[in-house]
Amino acid sequence: MERIKRTMAVAVLVLLSLFAHSNADEEAFDIRQHLSTVSRYGVVKDVAGNSFVPSDVPNGCTPIHLNLVARHGTRSPTKKRIRELDDLAAHLEALLRDAEEHKLSLKKVPAWLRSWESPWKGKVKGGELISKGEDELYDLGSRIREKFPNLFTEDYHPDIYTIKATQIPRASASAVAFGMGLFSGKGSLGPGHHRAFAVTSESRASDIVLRFHDCCQNYKNYRKSQEPFVDKLKEPIFDEITSALVKRYNLNFTRQVTSSLWFLCKQEASLLDITDQSCALFNPSEVALLEWTDDLEVFILKGYGKSINYRMGVPLLEDVVQSMEQAIQAREENHVPGSYEKARLRFAHAETVVPFSCLLGLFLEGPEFEQIQREKPLQYPPKPPQKRNWRGSIAAPFAVNNALVLYSCPANTSSKYFVQVLHNEHPIPMPGCNGSDFCAFEDFKERIVAPHLKHDYTTLCTAKLDKQVQKPQTTTRISSS
């Protein structure tokens, strides 16, 4: 009898331990870190993707130039998405009405869902930078100046601190917010001692440096051909989760309603910090799968899924390298301070930053980098619960940024100039530089840049492609299990 009591006591302790551990896991799960490209910058910028230990910048090395490629900050839903949320409200109302007519129990239906209206109901415009997005870029500008004070000692001049943005208002507004943070206290305007500064843009129809995706016809054709295929890849996941939602809430959800609820969750959590409504409909394992479908879409349509996705970004890569070479020349020729550029700052879109990250070989393991150099396709990001390097919340959240810092290291005998790459303000390994974040400039050019330069933008984007290239990949590589 005593043995039975001891056994039962141990079993109770084990159950209590498992319950406590489960609760701790749920409390630690922050859905705002799992919203793929809709993730807010401040929530994910310090999430460690791996155990990488950054290099120590050698003594005597000083930064002489900085390149920045950044996405706009957090924005409101676009007009098309606002209409989708209005449609969702109508669908939910119809589902509730249908359940009542069939005398189904609504006890499991969350209270918020019974009278829900879109927070953007009545809005006819969308896609603009919101105040949270302004803060993201303003704070980023402040931190960049704080991290590299020697680069920002000169009096402002547009040729010393070049700021460029696309013609899309949320990108130019992001550039303005960044500049206000960068130059805060350096002027005489208002109580914040702000100063005016220039933001320049190329025509949307010909901007092959920051909107290369918009000017590349072959890419647009490829994307259009692949979008239905991507939707097909997502279907098994959405069907599985839709079935679970129907059982959980006794409402006849459809795949489209589930998709719209997931979109609503991302908007509520990222823009409004609401995580106890639409997001609470899904459990953490379902969120992980939904996040993966978003990451998969970014991989196929903007990332390593096809070489044209990033090869078309070569004009941007050339612009970055050219600015470094000009800075080195100014250094070698002892140009006086204030006579040459010290930073080139660009503000654009996920469709700009993701291909640029791919050109640098970020988020890859060693063998994968060799594959993209040979233009071989990569395997898709593995499905949860398997771990993966490719995460939209890290690779392309709102305000995602890559900074390439050029260092002068006069005491170094092998190379006088080095490049350090920071992704979301943190050093990140470059497979092309033996997994280091600090790379000799000549090695950077030879191993990372040069293999891409054999591709001419005009030829890549206008030449007639082999029809076989346009064929969707088979779905056998991804199953719903």
What would you call the quaternary organization? Answer: single chain
Radius of gyration (CA) equals 25 Å
Please state the overall shape, judged from the principal axes of the Cα atoms.
Answer: globular
| Poorly predicted segments | 14-26, 467-481
In DSSP terms (H or I, runs of 4 or more residues), the helix count works out at: 17
Tell me the total number of β-strands.
7
Helix content: 40-55%
Mean pLDDT: 91
Overview of this protein structure:
The protein is an alpha/beta fold. It is 46% helix and 9% strand. The chain contains 17 helices and seven strands. Strands 1, 2, 3, 4, 5, 6 and 7 form a seven-stranded mixed beta sheet that branches. Helix 8 crosses helix 9 (255-271). The radius of gyration is 25 Å and the shape is globular. The model is unreliable at 14-26 and 467-481 (pLDDT under 50).
Q: Topology of this structure?
A:
Blueprint: H1 2-28, H2 41-44, E1 62-71, H3 79-101, H4 111-114, H5 131-147, E2 161-165, H6 169-182, H7 212-215, H8 217-249, H9 255-271, H10 284-301, H11 307-311, H12 314-332, E3 343-348, H13 350-360, H14 366-373, H15 392-395, E4 401-408, E5 417-423, E6 426-427, E7 438-440, H16 441-449, H17 457-462
Parallel strand pairs: 1-3, 2-3
Antiparallel strand pairs: 1-4, 4-5, 5-6, 5-7
